Amino acid sequence: MHIANPIYDVVFKYLLDDEKVAKAMLSALLGKEVLELQFRPTELHHEPDEQDGNDRGPSAQLLVLRMDFAATVRLEDGSHKLVLIEIQKARNAWDVQRFRRYLGANYSNQENVYLDPKGKRRPLPIMTIYFLGEGLDQVDVPVLRINRHYLDVATGAEVRITDPFVEALTHDSIVVQVNRLKAPRRTELEGLLEVFDQGQTSRLDPHVIEIMESNFPVRYRQVLRRLTQAVAEKEVREWMVVEDEMLAAYQDMEREAADLHQILVQSRQVLAEKDRTLAEKDQALAEKDQALAAKDRALAEIKQAHDELKRLFSGRGLEATRNREP
Questions:
Q1: Is residue 256 part of a domain?
Q2: What whole-number distance in Å separates Cα of residue 109 and Cα of residue 95?
Q3: Is the C or the N end of the chain the one with fewer CB within 10 Å?
Q4: Are the beta carbons of 226 and 21 closer than 8 angstroms?
Q5: Is residue 300 part of a domain?
Q6: What does each C-alpha distance from 88 to 132, 241, 265, 326 come to in angstroms?
Q7: Strand pairing partners for 89?
Q8: What is the pLDDT tens value at each position of the chain, 326 positions in all?
Q9: Which residues touch 220 (CB under 8 Å, ≥6 apart)?
Q10: Please, how many CA atoms are within 13 Å of residue 43, restricted to the half-sphere of its CB?
């Protein structure tokens, strides 16, 4: 069957706009049942500014999709926990500063609180999920789950009790590396994430993923149905084309910037070589001036010696003349 390719922002957002689908996917990723889910309005796209501090050139303007959910999850002991799930999706992993700033915005947002049983406002614990089109260089696994552990430093033993202070200042993370998804699917989660596998993109249309429904986990078939609906949505298809055009435009800009950078580097090399030549010329002129000055001093000394000899001889001649007088 053909489904819309969720590597595109518009398709990814369309997928998670369905609450049932979002709950199913987040439950699978978190390894915890999501009981309730509320989408929290977020700034989905962020235009770069001087604070980004990246030096990737024009391609740094590729947008990062960000979505936040307030979720009630069931923990292993049966208790419930309210958390903020921050999802960020990007084509590349290099834009760490922007990821950090999004995360920092959630940490500092005064609205990200809940009321404890005593009615006291508490900061919401945060869990982050990153979908990366081009993943990490050194880690060759499709899904990374980074879980915190409380450890007694003296004994190394794990402390099983959590604390609101620690929970509010640290967070668990999940990284999905789309470019690492491949068959065979080792787990049901990897089977679910097959919808992101770019190796199954249609040869005729990169907007479409080809899936064998019979091999797809049965309890996640609603994900396939949602992505099948996305293929049929005219607006979704049009926005995928727009994303392609934006990406192509940014890549062209990056290539032009790279060419200009190369020209600038070469120009600087030419100027540096010219400066070296001028410096060598100045040095040669300085040495010539020194040689001329030394020559002038030598000539002056010779002239001075000549004048002294002339004076001496002139004096002796005068004295000899006086001695010959009667």
A1: no
A2: 22
A3: C
A4: yes
A5: no
A6: 8, 21, 36, 125
A7: 65, 131
A8: 899 999 888 898 899 989 999 999 999 998 888 988 888 766 554 444 444 444 444 344 455 788 888 888 887 777 778 788 888 887 766 667 777 887 888 888 888 888 878 888 888 888 888 888 887 888 888 999 988 889 989 999 999 888 888 888 888 888 998 888 888 889 999 999 999 998 888 888 989 999 998 889 999 999 999 999 998 889 888 888 888 887 777 666 666 666 676 777 778 888 888 888 888 898 888 888 888 888 888 888 888 888 887 777 776 665 655 566 55
A9: 24, 25, 28, 188, 191, 192
A10: 13
Q: How far apart are CA 95 and CA 309, in angstroms?
A: 86
- Domain containing 45: what range? 2-232
Three-state DSSP string of 248-291? HHHHHHHHHHHHHHHHHHHHHHHHHHHHHHHHHHHHHHHHHHHH
CB neighbours of 162 closer than 8 A, spacing ≥ 6?
A: 150
Which two three-digit tokens encode residue 74?
Answer: 């069931």
Helices (H), 34-147: 96-108
**The two three-digit tokens of residue 96, written as one number:** 């760490």
Number of domains the chain is built from:
1
CB neighbours of 262 closer than 8 A, spacing ≥ 6? none
Interatomic CA distance for residues 290 and 284, integer angstroms:
10
The answer to whether position 114 is within a domain reads yes
